[in-house]
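Team,

Forwarding the record for the chain on the shared tracking sheet. I've put the sequence and predicted structure together so nobody has to dig through attachments.
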Amino acid sequence: MAETSLPARKRVDVRIVALTLTIALVAGGGFLLDRWINGGDKADLKEHVDSKRKEEIDQRFTQGVVMLHARQYDHAMTAFHRVLQLAPTMPEAHVNMGFALLGQKRYKEALDFFDGATALNPNQINAYFGMAEAFEGLGNYRGALEAMETWLHRAAKDDPFRRRAEAAVWEWRDRVNRDRAASFAK
């Protein structure tokens, strides 16, 4: 029998084809995986993050208020500190941090937070009440008087703290007048 030889075929290097195919599959798979994980919509992710942030702000703020009412000032300050990290322009958090500092008799720091609250929202009237108490703690009765008069001017006529505020104004006005008279007598 005669042997017939087949013509020799040129060998094709499949490594380049395999490498190209592998890169295409990895890139395509990565793209599909990204779309699957992120739902294909970055807005949904932002909405989710914003929702979780608001949830934490609400939770920490509530914790802070509860701790403030329980006179657990350190714990209240921790909660309000976190709220202020997440929402630095929230005047209510500034006010409550100020009241926690008042509870610790840290009057100057409290005054800074009350001042910050009124800078963010001039109608944050409880900040004026706290400011008056901080000024009193610092021995600045004129400042206390002015802040409490601002509170009285803006507060509702039936506010449960009105009597206390009016008594404080009467006392501080008397003290300021006595101090002024004593300085003229010198």
